[in-house]
C-alpha cells in the first residue's frame, strides 16, 4: 500500500502543468427538431474538463488548451466532435444504427433512438460511473448503479468465490443474456453449487471484461429470446467497447476495507489495487480505428470470522478470496470502402484466486496432527483463462445492410488446493494438489440483414438472420492423490479416513466427460411506425438443439406517444433457456458442511446411471411468458420519469434439488451402495412467477453560474413466487423433499424484494461530489435447522469527492458503505457458508475507502 501511495504522490508532484487562462466557450446543444438537449455532456478532448447543458441546452466552459476540441454527447443521440471557438452551436441527431455503429440493444432498426424503444433500456456511461464510484469491477459497478441488477461476492462457495454470480430482475444468472458489441458472449464453465445466489446455475463472467475498455453498458429489462435466442428470459446486457481515438486514459486506483471483525489488530484489509490504460489509434479518414486496453487488478483477502455472533464459531477463516486479474482487450474497425468495413474485437483474461475453505480443527478426524497440530484452513485456488475473439464483415447488399460474423469464446477453470492434505495418506500426505476442472467453448456464426423503408407509412424496418452455434464442454480429473482413498483394502468403514484433498476433493476419472451440441436458429423481426406517434413491432425466432429439440418464440411490442411529454409502451413475449452443457454433464463428489459437520455429497450428472435409476428425466429447456407495460414522461424541461411493470412466468426451471441422505427410505440403499452420504441432482423441478416494477426518475438543475446538480431516484420492486414443484420417478409425490423450502428460499433470495437508489451528483468548476444512498430490502432464508433467517433491510451510503489537479489529472477519493453497515448476524454453524451471515444484500465487508488518480491526454 505504501508503494502505491508513493507512486500516486510522485505522479501528483510531477504534474506541473500550469493552469492556462484559456478562452471561455459558450454554446447551445439542440436536437434535430431544434429543441434544447438538457444535460448533454460537453467535454474538452484530452482533458478532464467538462460540463453539461442547462435547461435551455446552453453551456459555459473555460478551455484549458490552446486549440480546444469539444466532444458533445447525450443518451439517445449521436455524439459529435467540434472545434471550440467563439459561440458553439450543435445539433445532435438521433442515435441510429448505421453501418459503422453498434446497435442499441432491443431493436434492430437503423432509425430508432433509445428514447423511442418500446422496451425499457438502461444506458450506463462507464466513463462517468468509474470516475465517481469506488467499485472497480463490472459486477460491483452495476450492483450499485442498476437497481434491477444484483451481484454479491461469496465465500465458502467453492468456484463461486472466484466468479461472482449475478442476476437481473431477481431471476437466475443464466437467465440473462450477455452481448459484447451486440454479439453473444460465452458463459463461464462454472456451475454454482453453494452460496445464496445462483445455486445450480451457470452464468456469464462479466468481470473478464475490464471496465476501462467499456464505453457504455446497455441493459434491456425485457424478455428478448425471440430477438436474441436462449438465456434472454430476464433481459439482455450489452457491453459496448470503446471506439475513441487519439486519446490516452490511464487510471491508478487503491482501496481497502475497515477491518471491523478481524481477530488481530490489523486496521485495514481486502486491499484492492487496480491500474489500467486505454488508447485509441485512428487509421485514415473513413473511421477506421484500433482501441486497446490493458488492465491489472489485485485484491487481498478480507477476514470476517471474528464476528461476535451467538453460539460459537464455524470457521477460523472467513472472507473474500484473494484474486489477481490481468486483462487485455481490443476493439477495431477497418473501412474498405464508404459502404463496407470489417471489424474485430475481443480479449483475454487470466485470473488466479485463493479462497478460504472450511476449517479442519485439531481434533477433526480429517486432520493429521503430525502435519497440522493446530488444525488447518484449506485454500481453494483457481486458475481461470478466458478468451474471446469476434471478426465480422459489414456491407450494403442492394438496399439491405448485411453483417456476417464469427464469434469464438472459451472459459477454462482449473482448481487447486494448498494448505491441505489427504488424510488417508497420513503423515506422508502432500499439502497441495491439482484437483482438475472444466472448460466451456462456444463458436457462433451469425448472418444478419436489416433494411428500412422510409416510404411505408412513417417508416418500416425489417430484419432477418440466421445463426449456427456449436458448444463444447469438458470436465477433467485431478491428480490421483486429490481424490483417492489410500486406506488398505478391507479397512472397516468405521476406520476409513476421508478421501482426497480436504476443502475440495478432486474430480475423479469417472467424473471426466467431453460433450458437445449444435444449435441452428433463424429469426425475423419488423418495426412499423404507423404514424409519428404509434409504433408496432414483432419478432419471431426458431431454434433447434441437437440435445433436446426445437423451440419457436415470438415477441410483440407497441409504443404510443399520448402527448409530446408522455409515452406508453408495452411488450409481450415467449422465451426459452436451453439447459447449459455444464448442468447436463457436471458430476462430482464433494464435501458439504451441515451444522459444522462434514458430509460427502454426490452430485450425479443428469443422464447418469444413478439419475436414470431414480427416474429423473433428461433436462429440457425452460420456457417463459413475459409482459411489460410502462410509461415514459418528461415532466417539465429538467425532469424525466419512467415506470415499467413486468410479469415473468418460467416453467420447468432447472434447479439443484435438495440433498437426499443415505437413510432415505427410497433411495438410501442406492447411496449406501455408492458409499455416499448424501446426493443431489439437476432437474426441471420448479415453475416460478415474478411480478415487479422498475422506476427511474431523473432531474437536472443548474446551481449558480457554474454549478450543476443531477439527481436520480431508481428503484426495483420484485416478488418471485414458486407456483409448483415437479417430481418424477421414484421420488414422485415428495415435493418438499425433492425441492424443499430451504432450496426454494435461495431461489427467492436471488434479489432483495426491493432495491432503491438515490443519487446526488454535483459538479462545479474543478470540484465534484457524489452522494448515493442505496436501500436493500430484507431477505428471508432458512437455516440448517429449518428455522427462518430474516435479514433486515439495510441502507448504505457512498461518498465520492473529486478535484481536477491539472488539465489532464484528476484525483478522486471517498468511501463506499460509509457508515459500515453489515447484514443481520446469525449463528455461523447454521448459515450456508459458515460465517455470521450469508452473502446477501450489499455484501459483508463493511466500509471501503478508496483513492484514484486519473490521467487523460
From TrEMBL:
<dbReference type="InterPro" id="IPR037066">
    <property type="entry name" value="Plug_dom_sf"/>
</dbReference>
<keyword id="KW-0798">TonB box</keyword>
<feature type="signal peptide">
    <location>
        <begin position="1"/>
        <end position="20"/>
    </location>
</feature>
<dbReference type="InterPro" id="IPR039426">
    <property type="entry name" value="TonB-dep_rcpt-like"/>
</dbReference>
<keyword id="KW-0813">Transport</keyword>
<comment type="similarity">
    <text>Belongs to the TonB-dependent receptor family.</text>
</comment>
<dbReference type="InterPro" id="IPR036942">
    <property type="entry name" value="Beta-barrel_TonB_sf"/>
</dbReference>
<feature type="domain" description="TonB-dependent receptor-like beta-barrel">
    <location>
        <begin position="399"/>
        <end position="818"/>
    </location>
</feature>
<dbReference type="Pfam" id="PF07715">
    <property type="entry name" value="Plug"/>
</dbReference>
<protein>
    <submittedName>
        <fullName>TonB-dependent receptor</fullName>
    </submittedName>
</protein>
<keyword id="KW-0998">Cell outer membrane</keyword>
<keyword id="KW-0812">Transmembrane</keyword>
<keyword id="KW-1134">Transmembrane beta strand</keyword>
<dbReference type="GO" id="GO:0009279">
    <property type="term" value="C:cell outer membrane"/>
</dbReference>
<keyword id="KW-0732">Signal</keyword>
<dbReference type="Pfam" id="PF00593">
    <property type="entry name" value="TonB_dep_Rec_b-barrel"/>
</dbReference>
<dbReference type="InterPro" id="IPR012910">
    <property type="entry name" value="Plug_dom"/>
</dbReference>
<dbReference type="InterPro" id="IPR008969">
    <property type="entry name" value="CarboxyPept-like_regulatory"/>
</dbReference>
<dbReference type="Pfam" id="PF13715">
    <property type="entry name" value="CarbopepD_reg_2"/>
</dbReference>
<dbReference type="InterPro" id="IPR000531">
    <property type="entry name" value="Beta-barrel_TonB"/>
</dbReference>
<keyword id="KW-0675">Receptor</keyword>
<feature type="domain" description="TonB-dependent receptor plug">
    <location>
        <begin position="115"/>
        <end position="236"/>
    </location>
</feature>
<keyword id="KW-0472">Membrane</keyword>
Amino acid at each position: 500500500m505504501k508503494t502505491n501511495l508513493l507512486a500516486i504522490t510522485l505522479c501528483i508532484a510531477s504534474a506541473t502543468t500550469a493552469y492556462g487562462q484559456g478562452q471561455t466557450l459558450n454554446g447551445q446543444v439542440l436536437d434535430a427538431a431544434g429543441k434544447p438537449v438538457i444535460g448533454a455532456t460537453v467535454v474538452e478532448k484530452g482533458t478532464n474538463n467538462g460540463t453539461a447543458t442547462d435547461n435551455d441546452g446552453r453551456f459555459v466552459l473555460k478551455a484549458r488548451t490552446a486549440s480546444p476540441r469539444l466532444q458533445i454527447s447525450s443518451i439517445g443521440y449521436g455524439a459529435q466532435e467540434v472545434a471550440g471557438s467563439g459561440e458553439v452551436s450543435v445539433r445532435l441527431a438521433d442515435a441510429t444504427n448505421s453501418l459503422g455503429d453498434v446497435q442499441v440493444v432491443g431493436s434492430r432498426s437503423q432509425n430508432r433512438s433509445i428514447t423511442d424503444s418500446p422496451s425499457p433500456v438502461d444506458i450506463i456511461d462507464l466513463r462517468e460511473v468509474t470516475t465517481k464510484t469506488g467499485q472497480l469491477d463490472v459486477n460491483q459497478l452495476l450492483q450499485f448503479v442498476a437497481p434491477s441488477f444484483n451481484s454479491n461476492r461469496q465465500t465458502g462457495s467453492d468456484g463461486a468465490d472466484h466468479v461472482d454470480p449475478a442476476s437481473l430482475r431477481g431471476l437466475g444468472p443464466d437467465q440473462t443474456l450477455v452481448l459484447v458489441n451486440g454479439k453473444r458472449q460465452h458463459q463461464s464453465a462454472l456451475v454454482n453449487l453453494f452460496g445464496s445466489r445462483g445455486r445450480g446455475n451457470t452464468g456469464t463472467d462479466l468481470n473478464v471484461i475490464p471496465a476501462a475498455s467499456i464505453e457504455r453498458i446497455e441493459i434491456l429489462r425485457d424478455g428478448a429470446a425471440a430477438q436474441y435466442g436462449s438465456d434472454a428470459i430476464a433481459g439482455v446486457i450489452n457491453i459496448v467497447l470503446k471506439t475513441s481515438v487519439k486519446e490516452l486514459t490511464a487510471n491508478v486506483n487503491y482501496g481497502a476495507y475497515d477491518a471491523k471483525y478481524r481477530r488481530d489488530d490489523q486496521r485495514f484489509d481486502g486491499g484492492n489495487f487496480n491500474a489500467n490504460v486505454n488508447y485509441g489509434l485512428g487509421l485514415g479518414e473513413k473511421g477506421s480505428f484500433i482501441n486497446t486496453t490493458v488492465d491489472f487488478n489485485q485484491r487481498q483477502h478480507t477476514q470476517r470470522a471474528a464476528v461476535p455472533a451467538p453460539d460459537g464459531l464455524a470457521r477460523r477463516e472467513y472472507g473474500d478470496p484473494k484474486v489477481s486479474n490481468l486483462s487485455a482487450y481490443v476493439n477495431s474497425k477497418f473501412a474498405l470502402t464508404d459502404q463496407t468495413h470489417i471489424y474485430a474485437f475481443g480479449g483475454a483474461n487470466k485470473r488466479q484466486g485463493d479462497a478460504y475453505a472450511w476449517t479442519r480443527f485439531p481434533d477433526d478426524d480429517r486432520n493429521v496432527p503430525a502435519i497440522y497440530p493446530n488444525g488447518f484452513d484449506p485454500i481453494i485456488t483457481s486458475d481461470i483463462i478466458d478468451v474471446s475473439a469476434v471478426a465480422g464483415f459489414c456491407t450494403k447488399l442492394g438496399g439491405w445492410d448485411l453483417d456476417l460474423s464469427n464469434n469464438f469464446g472459451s472459459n477454462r477453470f482449473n482448481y487447486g488446493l494448498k494448505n491441505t492434505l489427504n488424510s488417508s495418506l497420513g503423515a506422508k500426505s502432500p499439502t497441495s494438489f491439482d484437483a482438475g476442472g472444466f472448460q466451456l467453448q462456444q463458436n457462433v456464426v451469425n448472418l444478419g440483414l436489416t433494411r428500412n423503408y422510409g416510404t411505408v407509412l412513417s417508416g418500416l424496418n425489417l430484419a432477418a438472420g440466421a445463426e449456427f452455434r456449436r458448444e463444447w464442454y469438458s470436465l477433467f480429473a485431478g491428480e490421483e492423490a486429490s481424490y483417492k482413498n489410500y486406506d488398505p483394502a478391507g479397512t472397516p468403514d468405521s476406520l476409513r479416513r476421508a478421501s482426497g484433498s480436504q476443502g475440495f476433493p478432486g474430480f475423479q476419472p469417472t467424473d471426466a466427460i467431453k460433450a458437445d451440441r449444435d444449435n441452428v436458429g433463424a429469426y425475423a423481426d419488423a418495426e412499423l411506425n404507423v404514424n409519428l406517434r404509434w409504433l408496432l413491432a414483432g419478432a419471431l425466432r426458431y431454434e433447434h438443439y441437437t440435445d433436446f429439440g426445437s423451440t419457436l418464440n415470438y415477441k410483440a411490442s407497441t409504443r404510443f406517444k399520448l402527448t409530446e411529454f408522455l409515452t406508453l409502451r408495452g411488450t409481450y413475449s415467449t422465451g426459452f433457456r436451453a439447459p447449459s452443457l455444464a448442468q447436463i454433464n457436471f458430476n462430482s463428489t464433494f464435501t458439504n458442511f451441515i451444522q459444522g459437520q462434514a458430509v460427502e455429497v454426490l452430485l450425479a450428472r443428469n443422464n447418469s446411471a444413478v439419475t436414470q435409476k431414480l427416474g429423473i428425466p433428461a433436462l429440457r429447456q425452460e420456457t417463459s411468458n413475459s409482459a411489460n407495460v410502462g410509461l415514459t414522461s418528461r415532466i417539465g424541461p429538467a425532469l424525466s420519469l419512467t415506470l415499467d411493470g413486468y410479469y415473468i412466468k418460467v416453467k420447468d426451471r432447472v434447479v439443484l434439488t435438495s440433498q437426499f441422505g443415505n437413510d432415505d427410505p427410497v433411495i438410501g440403499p442406492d447411496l449406501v451402495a455408492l458409499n455416499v452420504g448424501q446426493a443431489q441432482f439437476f432437474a426441471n423441478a420448479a415453475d416460478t412467477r415474478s411480478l415487479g416494477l422498475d422506476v427511474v426518475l431523473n432531474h437536472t438543475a443548474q446551481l449558480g453560474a457554474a454549478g450543476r446538480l443531477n439527481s436520480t431516484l431508481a428503484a426495483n420492486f420484485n416478488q418471485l413466487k414458486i407456483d409448483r414443484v415437479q417430481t418424477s420417478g421414484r421420488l414422485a409425490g415428495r415435493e418438499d423433499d425433492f425441492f424443499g423450502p430451504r432450496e426454494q428460499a435461495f431461489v427467492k433470495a436471488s434479489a432483495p424484494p426491493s432495491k432503491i437508489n438515490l443519487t446526488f451528483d454535483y459538479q462545479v468548476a474543478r470540484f465534484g461530489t457524489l452522494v448515493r444512498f442505496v436501500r436493500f430490502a430484507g431477505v428471508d432464508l432458512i437455516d440448517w435447522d429449518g428455522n427462518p433467517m430474516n435479514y433486515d433491510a439495510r441502507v448504505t451510503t457512498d461518498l465520492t469527492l473529486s478535484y481536477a489537479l491539472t488539465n489532464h489529472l484528476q484525483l478522486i477519493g471517498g468511501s463506499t458503505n460509509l457508515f459500515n453497515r453489515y447484514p443481520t448476524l446469525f449463528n455461523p454453524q447454521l448459515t450456508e457458508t459458515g460465517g455470521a451471515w450469508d452473502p446477501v444484500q450489499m455484501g459483508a465487508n463493511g466500509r471501503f475507502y478508496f483513492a484514484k488518480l486519473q490521467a487523460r491526454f
